[in-house]
Amino acid sequence: MLSDAIGGVGFTWASNPACTELEMMMLDWVGRMLKLPNEFLFSAGGKGGGVIQGTASEATLVALLTARNRTVTNNNENKDLLHKMVAYCSDQAHSSVERAGLLAMVKLRSIPSDDERQMRGDALEKAIKEDKANGMIPIFVCATLGTTSTCAFDQLEEIGQVCQRHNVWLHIDAAYAGSAFICPEFRPLLNGVEFADSFNFNPHKWMLVNFDCSLMWIRDSSQFVEAFNVDPLYLKHNHQHSIPDYRHWQIPLGRRFRSLKLWFVIRLYGIKGLQDHIRKQVALAKEFSNLVSTDKNFEIVEEVKMGLVCFKLKGDNKVNEQLLENINKDGRIHIVPAMVKDVYVLRFAICATQTSVKDVQFAWTVIHQLATELGQK
What we know:
By secondary structure, this protein is an alpha/beta fold. Helix content is 41%, strand content 16%. The strands form 2 sheets. A 7-stranded mixed β-sheet has the order 1-7-6-5-4-2-3, with helices on both faces. The longest helix has 35 residues, at 259-293.
């Protein structure tokens, strides 16, 4: 409310210096909480830095457009360039990656994941070599840390080395799981970020910040400026080459004072408070997983790593589709499904700020009751 009441116009530093400078500070604060490489921080004095986008979908599109522009710049003599470009992601990646490909008019190739739902380096290497042999130009890879369906983690270190060998832009989408990397026990899942050109996660998903607040870091911000710079006279000011103008770092021109709400949350909870919140929700997911495991009629489908539990009734897809329909029709709780390698699974996600053990136990009671009724029919 305060961000909106201030009514800041933050597309240039001159239009609202506090909006720009607080955003730079917050991206460095969170970057240090995540232990990102110094190349991504403003304080390092290099070309890197961060920006608050609206959503992870925007961040992926911005990264892909920037990678496309870099390729065009480096191959300006190739007139048939656009239809030869190809980008890559896991078959478990979010649908927003596919949409980014459509909007950028870049062919997107889906890499089959392994039995752990991960994109692996060898599968990516094979696809890139095949495409190069066929005259295609690989330009972009989106690695997912915490997939929507099962919270799987692509093998980032393997993927990063492949991207480095082939000079392909590596973007990391950690929209949900990224908040957990402020906890030391989860930070190893981000190992390999040193290979990335850009990295994104959403504090509005799991770090107690209201929507919308999607943090994005880039190793070389001049790539953004080259891709999106349109510089009419009425937007020029005397400091535009000495401090970021965030209008060059995003799709829209105008922007809101999003960094203020991030500042309030970090100052109110502190790093420890945010870590405690994430650890509590992971523990609640483990609690639900334990309840499911006590019932011989159910099975846990994937390893529970964070706040998501994938489970199903033992049986075919049809019975699980019916169970989900009954649960959501009942109205006491709501569950969203996923299809994992042709297996229909139910997803129990711990997301709400005030979720408690009693809530988890209540949800299991409802699920168990409706499953029992389904089995009696």
